[in-house]
Amino acid sequence: VTPVVARRPQSLKMCGERGNPLKTILQLMCQLLWVEGMVVAMGGVYLLMKYRHYSLFFSQTYILLPAIFTLCGAAFLVLTGFLGTWLSLRDSRCLQGLFVYLLVVIFFLESTASALALVHSRKLDSETAPLSKMFQNYTGSSQDINSRAVDATQQELQCCGVSNYTDWLDTSWFNQTGGKLVPRSCCNATFHSCTGSVEQPWQLYPQGCQVKLEMAFQFILSFIMWCALLGFLTEVRGKHLIT
């Protein structure tokens, strides 16, 4: 009997020594979940801000769906991180089950956000169809919200026209200027004497606004997809530690 009693505390000690590293790894993983949640939230908020700024150029609001699912996933990531930290401090089957359940919810949210981001990244050209119409209806008036949006976009994205400056040649605005000028917002900032004359095209921005606009949203949507992949790897690791 004596040898058995002597071995029992030793075996419990060995189990505790094996559990401590796992708890440390779980705590580190939970901190990673917090960081990932904040990064993912930044991607969702950035997409919302970009859309709000360029909403006039989009035919539908469906591009906001990846941002909505991303923000929901970010909230669950932060919540799961706090729960995992609590779980690392105490043993509870109930908390373990809830932790795994939240990881599954996060997986579905991020998978949906990633799939939606992929879909919208492939049809940005059709979603920005109103861009051409707004350039055609440009008046140059500061009272016209569409004209202000066109000027602001050309200055911020450093672009001119839809595809390039030649798109302005078919607009009523160009005819009103006597067939000589494009809006001064097309002028490259390095040429201070630029008046928008088509006789000096080297002083105008060479790229069109549609390409620049699509590149900006492609970057955000790709960022969301990569964050979803990172989240999937973290969740698999966390589920493995619990189970």
UniProtKB/TrEMBL annotation:
Pfam families cross-referenced by the UniProt entry? Tetraspanin
Please name the InterPro entries in this protein's record: Tetraspanin/Peripherin, Tetraspanin_animals, Tetraspanin_EC2_sf
**Membrane topology listed for this record:** Multi-pass membrane protein
Keyword annotations for this protein, in alphabetical order, are: Membrane, Transmembrane, Transmembrane helix
Concerning Gene3D superfamilies, the annotation shows: Tetraspanin (1.10.1450.10)
What parts of the sequence cross the membrane?
Answer: 25-49, 61-86, 98-119, 215-233
Q: Any idea where this protein resides?
A: Membrane
Chief location category: membrane
What is the similarity comment for this entry?
Belongs to the tetraspanin (TM4SF) family.
Protein name, UniProt field: Tetraspanin
Q: Read off the lineage from the record.
A: Eukaryota, Metazoa, Chordata, Craniata, Vertebrata
